[in-house]
Amino acid sequence: MGRFIARRLLQAIPTLFGIMLISFILLRVSPADPVKLMVPSDAELTEQDRENLREALGLNKPLPVQFLDFVTQSATLDFGKSFYYHRPARDMIFERVPNSIQPVLLGLLVGVLVGIPLGFISALNRGRRSDHAIRVSSTLLNATPDFFLGLLFVLFLAIQLKWFPIGSMNVVGEDCVLCWDRVWHLVGPVLLYANGGIAFYPRLIRTEVLEVLSQDFVRTARSKGLRERVVMSGHVLRNALIPVVTNFGGILTIIFAGNVIVERVFNWPGLGRLFFDALTQKDYPIIQASLVMGAGLLLISYIMRDITYALVDPRIKVR
Amino acid sequence: MAATAVATEVAIRPTQVRRASAGFWSDAWWRLRHDPTTMVAIAVIVALVVLAISADALADNVFNWSFSKQNLEQAYRKPTFDDPAFWMGADNLGRSQIVRLLYGARVSLFVGFFGMLVTMTIGVTMGLTAGYFRGRWDDFVVWLVSTINSIPTFFLLLIIGFMFRLNAVVLPLFLGALGWLGICNLTRGQTFALRERDYVTAARTVGASNVRIMFRHIFPNVIPLIIVIAMIDVGGLILTESALSFLGFGIQPPQPSWGNMLSDAPQFYFRGAHLIYFPGVLISVTVLCTYLIGDGLRDALDPRLRGSFAADRKG
């Protein structure tokens, strides 16, 4: 196992290099000049001022040196200060992490608790009406854009039924993380995150369960007289859940990338909102920090996925 | 006697067998024609394409309202049958929603289909060459795929949208440049297996060039798989475009797109919910139809896979 992990980490190095290179090219060599982005075009700035600014940002150095700077910056997570708030970009990102994690984890939980049983019901009733209904609704949910679903939640559940407020994290003046006020505000985002799982898991589980049911070991289990419940929980369930378990690695990515839309619809002050605001305010250091840290997390989550896969499924030989 | 004649005719008709020598494609087409869900989905997409192409003519002759014409007195007007231009109501600036939706259909469908072509072109070329030549080139392609795979694509697209002013032609190019990984992996895997087949060896023996072997002998075998993924891809690209435009980093106003018509949605909550329903439902229906066509094509081209979801195999 140790060898497998070491090997997988080693494989990640060229990928990491590629990510750094692409991020660097996109952020530094693109036609968009950071100095122009920083300073509004109508600002009264002499050419000398602009040069000084470039100097201060290290944009005058040769490109390979800039790339090395970029790599060291990324390794130490030191991305400079936000143009807008004059605080280190890293601190601003870390502050927002708990805000983002809370609805993501709850949404994932709801998605799993609803989606997985639906997948089982669908597979065990293959071809019947309930199977059909579940398949149609999950395909429909899959075709609906997240932001439209979020807007519908706001229109019907928040405005008409008043289940939860239209936006933000707490009532003005309140500032708590675990209280009824927060729970009330969480309903909308959690529902929207859960939708991802409810649209995805039923089909995944259905395919898996049908696949497992056709395997020889299930027939063996049945023929040696095991009760159907034991076959289902001990043999079928365990094997069908493998792809779900390995999919959990994706959590890390949703925390970063998946929530720009959810946090925009519900005006939730998390990482996605920070990134979105940074883009509209042209806050270069935060954009850079978000991209590099997001990509880093994604890479880590892939490695974790491969490792859990090897741990959960003994058939995966350590290559 | 007439009654018997009719009865015989009726009895015979179902037993008319298709020509036994039906080829792969006519066989698939036969199955497709007998799949009502898919045919309805195809009809919807074709109707949307026709409407999108005739957007100019319809705006000039039927609705008498251009997509940018404003009339603030009509702002937030509810859908009404009085004036064709306001069949679907007016937006916050008093523009005709139905005309804007027609032009939005142009953007969505063009981005979807053109983006799919870009994706397919890059993915198939990379996959075929990597699988065929193997060695260094294959290593490079694999590295490129895993690298791009490790970058949060939506983040990257937002950054690209912030740096360049995206329009309906440039956006699909970027979407394609980031979206070819799945197709590449698939084609590469297939090519690995197919290049060892006897007929490929035979083609090489008679002196066929590498390009000819790849595109005339290997590629046709991958087409059925590719077509299915391509349709699903169109839906995925339409979703991505609408999400980007919704956030304000995709298609830029005044050019209407279904996504950017929803960017001001919070203003519409209380005054004009119809401005949220129509674009949103159109996106969902269009994407749903492409998914259904994908599923239908998969069943038609490879009946053994019936019942699994084509959409699940897009990654």
Describe this protein's structure:
The complex is a heterodimer of chains A (319) and B (315). Chain A has a domain at 97-272: Orthogonal Bundle (MetI-like fold). Chain A is built from 14 helices and no strands. Chain A starts with a helix and ends in a 7-residue tail after the last helix. The mean pLDDT of chain A is 81. In chain A, helix 9 (216-223) runs antiparallel to helix 10 (228-240) and helix 12 (251-265) packs across helix 13. Chain A has 319 residues and is mainly alpha-helical. Chain A has helices spanning 2-29, 34-38, 47-57, 63-75, 89-124, 129-143, 146-160, 180-213, 216-223, 228-240, 242-247, 251-265, 271-280, 284-312. In chain A, 75% of the residues lie in helices and 0% in strands. Chain B has 315 residues and is mostly helical. In chain B, 68% of the residues lie in helices and 0% in strands. Chain B has helices at 2-12, 24-33, 36-53, 55-63, 97-133, 135-149, 153-163, 170-179, 181-194, 198-205, 210-247, 265-268, 274-301. The longest helix of chain B is centred in the C-terminal third of the chain and has 38 residues, at 210-247. Chain B is elongated and about 75 Å long. Mean pLDDT of chain B is 83; it is low at 1-8 and 309-315. The chains are: A mainly alpha (319), B mainly alpha (315). Chains A and B meet through helix 1, helix 6, helix 7, helix 8 and helix 12 of A and helix 6, helix 7, helix 11 and helix 13 of B.
Q: Order of SSEs of chain A, N→C?
A: HHHHHHHHHHHHHH
Shape of chain A: globular
Shape of chain B from CA axes?
Answer: elongated
Uncertain runs of chain B are 1-8, 309-315
* Interface with most residues: A-B, 50 and 48 residues
Number of strands of chain B: 0
Q: What is the beta-strand fraction of chain A?
A: under 5%
Count of strand segments of chain A: 0
Taking all residues together, what is the mean pLDDT of chain B?
A: 83
Helices, strands, pairings?
The complex is a heterodimer of chains A (319) and B (315).
Chain A: H1 2-29, H2 34-38, H3 47-57, H4 63-75, H5 89-124, H6 129-143, H7 146-160, H8 180-213, H9 216-223, H10 228-240, H11 242-247, H12 251-265, H13 271-280, H14 284-312
Chain B: H1 2-12, H2 24-33, H3 36-53, H4 55-63, H5 97-133, H6 135-149, H7 153-163, H8 170-179, H9 181-194, H10 198-205, H11 210-247, H12 265-268, H13 274-301
Helix pairs in contact in B: 2-13, 3-5, 3-13, 4-5, 5-6, 5-8, 5-9, 5-11, 7-8, 9-11, 10-11, 11-13
